[in-house]
Every structure is written in structure tokens, then in C-alpha cells.
Amino acid sequence: MKIIILGIPGSGKDTQGELLAKKYKIPLISTGDILRHAMAVHSPIGKKVAAYIKKGILVPDKLIDRIVKARLKHKDCKKGFILGGFPRDIAQAKELQIITAIDSVIYLTIPKKEVIKRVSNRRVCIKCGKEYNLISSPPKKPGICNKCKEKLIHREDDKKTTIKRRLEVYKKQTKPLIRYYSKKSILKKIDGNRPINKIFNNICKILEK
Ligand code: AMP
After folding, report:
1. CA angle (129, 134, 137) in 5-degree steps
2. Nearest-CA neighbor of 64 among 35, 28, 97, 43?
């Protein structure tokens, strides 16, 4: 199972990716999470990418390609993997094609007005990357991660001006991937504007067909 989850920011890529990873016992590789973690621990990569992330623009392809390539070499990816947030443009997709073949691309759709609602209510654990939504899936204890008991934050790039920029970047750079993968006949379009478990069951059915 080599899967990509594609979708506009806030479409539920990480939420569905986590559920799929648990069910099929394959890793979720979320490039956003990897980069945020690198920033949190002030690693050299974290320092390099911070300015891009703050502005809401993509980090350079070469850097992200290198990170993903190294991650996919890990033993835990042998049975398969879920890529969330990668590829983000055609150049990354072409690079990925050189590294490995992909079986399915799950394309999560949500109405644009839903995006702002979701990202303004999204909170994330800076330690483990787990995401919460203050309305649909709040943490048990306000402001604290259920899993690792760390503090939750409202991502700087989920705030109003930066999310606007990220949506522009999505339209210009990431959206062309829909055509790219649909031409390869591996794109599966899923209505992401439903309860989490309904979307999840729908994805599993499609993957197990
Ligand atoms: P995400 O959590 O997937 O929304 O990613 C947050 C930010 O990390 C993006 O706005 C980009 O700045 C950066 N990022 C994540 N994945 C990629 C990628 N595949 N290519 C370039 N930049 C990325």
C-alpha cells in the first residue's frame, strides 16, 4: 500500500492519514509534521525552513525531496506508506516517481469556506504532531494533547493572512497534481466534508477494492 493523500490545507489529510496508518500498520509520512518538528528542535533543517513555513510558501523542492527520499528508505516503509503533504507540486511528483511507484492517490475535497472554519479551530501538539479540532474533535483536557500531555498550539501558518497565501500556493502549485494523477488513473476523489469515520470507511473500501 503506497498511498498519497492530497487535498487543500485543512481537508483532513493528517487525520485520515493517522487512521489509515493505524489500520494498515504502515507509517504516515507527513512532511508538514517533519518540518514542524525540525523547527521545534531548532535543527539545521528547521532553521532553513522556518521562513518559508511562516510565509506560507513551499520549502525548496530539493530539500523536501531529500527528506522524503531518506524517510522512504526506512525499514518500516517496506510494506507501504502514506504520504501526507507530499508531493506538493509537479516537480516533487516526478521526483517521487523516480524513487517509487504509487498505488493510490486519495484526493480529499472540501468546500473552500470550510477551510477557514477548520484551520481556525485546528490545534496541534508540537511534540507528537497530533491534530485536534476544537469543535469536532477537541482534546479531553483543553489545550493539552491526549497522547503525550504536551501543550497544543494554533499553528502560526493557520492564522488568517498566512492561510490565504497557502490557499493561493495550493491553487497554483499543488492543484495541478489532480490532473497529473488522474491521467495515471490512480486518483480517487473522496468527499472530505463528512464525519471523520464516514470518510475513513469510504477510503478503506476504495483501497480494499
Ligand atoms: P502542511 O502541514 O502539510 O500544511 O505543511 C505546512 C508547511 O510546510 C507548508 O505550508 C510548506 O511551507 C511546508 N511543506 C510541507 N510539505 C511540503 C512539501 N511537500 N513541499 C514544500 N513545502 C512543504
Report:
1. 70
2. 35
Strand partners, 152: 125
Q: In this structure, are residues 64 and 31 in contact, taking their beta carbons and an 8 Å threshold?
A: yes
Instruction: Give Cα separations from 176 to 91, 92, 186 (angstroms).
Output: 11, 12, 15
User: 2, 123, 130, 155: which one is catalytic?
Assistant: 155
Active site includes 122?
A: yes
Picking from 2, 63, 8, the residue whose alpha carbon sits closest to that of residue 31 is 63
Would you tell me how many other CB atoms lie within 10 Å of the CB of residue 20?
23
What sign results for the dihedral spanned by CA atoms 60, 62, 67, 72?
positive
pLDDT in tens, the chain (209 residues): 999 999 999 999 999 999 999 999 999 999 999 999 999 899 999 999 999 999 999 999 999 999 999 999 999 999 999 999 999 999 999 999 999 999 999 999 999 889 998 999 999 998 888 889 998 889 999 999 999 999 999 988 898 889 999 999 999 999 999 999 999 999 999 999 999 999 999 999 999 98
Query: For 144, which DSSP code?
Result: B
Distance 33 CA to ligand 1 centre (A): 8
Does residue 65 line the site of ligand 1, with CB under 6 A? no
- CA dist 166 and 55 (Å) reads 8
Q: What pTM does this model have? A: 0.92
